[in-house]
Amino acid sequence: MVKHVILWTLKDELSSEEKVTIKQGIKEGLEGLKGKVPGIVDIKVNIDGLASSNADLMLDSTFENEDALKAYAAHPEHVAVADSKVRPYTKIRSCLDYEVE
User: Fold this and answer.
1) CA triplet 57, 95, 24: central angle to 5 degrees?
2) What's residue 78's pLDDT?
3) Distance CA 50, CA 23 (A)
């Protein structure tokens, strides 16, 4: 299996209220892909980081294998969520993909 972990920082110009709404939209959009995109074993978005965090939210997902992760990246359902709910509002994206047993 493959883990796909992403940390995002939202754009500075967003208000605290906007950030709450945007984070909820990202969570609902990405977690809603389970069952729609083949190869997803698990997908969770954490939007409630502690004050000590230096990112606003985290995607923690597991895929059957690296090919499934590659297919997810290009899948129309994922691209639609990324283009409408994630990319317009984020300024920093950090990603770590790794194999797990």
Assistant:
1) 20
2) 98
3) 15
